Amino acid sequence: MSERLGQPRPTDERRVCGMMTFSEYVTKRNAYSYPTVGLHGSIDRWTEVPFTTTHQLDCHQNHLLLSDENEEVILGYLSTIFWGYYSGKNNAKHSDRALAKVRLAYDGVKDIGVDSVAQEIRATFDKLKSNQYDEALRRLCHLPQLGIPFASKVCAFLIPTNCGVIDRVIANSYPCFGFSVYNNGYVKNNADNKLNYAAYCSFLQKQADTLNSQGEPFQWRDRDGLRYPWRAVDIERALY
Predict the structure, then answer these.
(1) DSSP H or E run through 117
(2) Is residue 4 part of a domain?
(3) What does the alpha-carbon distance between residue 201 and residue 232 come to, in Å, rounded to a whole number?
(4) What is the rounded distance in angstroms from the CA atom of residue 128 to the CA atom of residue 151?
């Protein structure tokens, strides 16, 4: 372990739930390289915005999704879709693909109604606050371009302390979470997977609490070198 992360404690080499040691969690989270991009502007005139750190991205997304302004909530929803489709294999950038998905989502939002979709996202936030994770996914999956993976991305930006993303990388790399996938490896949009999301988020929260109990030397570092305590979404990003 490098000096900048401090000396490992005796408990550091204990594997957490058979997955990784505390040191490995820190190393993996520090190396998380998924692009930090989103959208800003308005829902009828958005532009791509890059972020230097994951903290900046999370704050941007969370601010929009929890806004009192319905159009900002929708922009946060569209920005989440853009972020999720932006990167491909080997971190190849696919801005055009991401924007095409955003436009499809926005067309669907207009059909339902901006105010109605914004209220549905707020209702989802309430469900997450009361630990009804399966119900949160169920509500989001009715919205345009949101299956379980992208619905979980919205959840993770709504409450990063409690939620993480479940996609085919996590589902296939960690079958212990019990997420079923189609033959192409993508997560199935079924009731069992929605129920499993609750147990998954509980696992992420407990892992975050465990790492936070180890003190500052085991906090993760963002891309600007600043340390942060662990949240559920940070555990997921270390596993990714």
Answers:
(1) helix 114-129
(2) no
(3) 7
(4) 12
The closest alpha carbon to 166, from 200, 136, 208, 139, belongs to: 200
Structural domain includes residue 109: yes
If DSSP codes are grouped into helix, strand and coil, which group holds residue 225? Answer: coil
**Would you tell me how many other CB atoms lie within 10 Å of the CB of residue 50?**
10
Distance of alpha carbon 38 from alpha carbon 61, whole angstroms:
8
pLDDT in tens, 186-206: 999 999 999 999 999 999 999
Q: Which residues contact 35 (CB under 8 A, 6 or more apart)?
A: 50, 83, 86, 87, 91, 93
Question: Residue 93 has what pLDDT?
Answer: 78
**Structural domain boundaries enclosing 30:** 12-239
Q: Is the pLDDT of residue 7 over 50?
A: no
Does a structural domain hold residue 3? no
pTM for the model: 0.91
pLDDT in tens, 10-53: 344 345 555 789 999 999 999 999 999 999 999 989 999 999 99
C-alpha to C-alpha distance for 34 and 223, rounded to whole angstroms: 11
Domain count within the chain = 1
Please state, in angstroms and rounded to a whole number, the distance separating the CA atoms of residues 10 and 222: 25
Which of 39, 82, 77 lies closest to 154 in space, CA to CA?
A: 77
Q: Are 144 and 112 in contact (CB under 8 A)?
A: yes
> What six digits make up the tokens of 131?
């630990």
- State the Cα angle at 143 between 193 and 52, rounded to 5°: 85
* Cα–Cα nearest to 57, from 39, 36, 43: 36
6 falls within a domain:
no
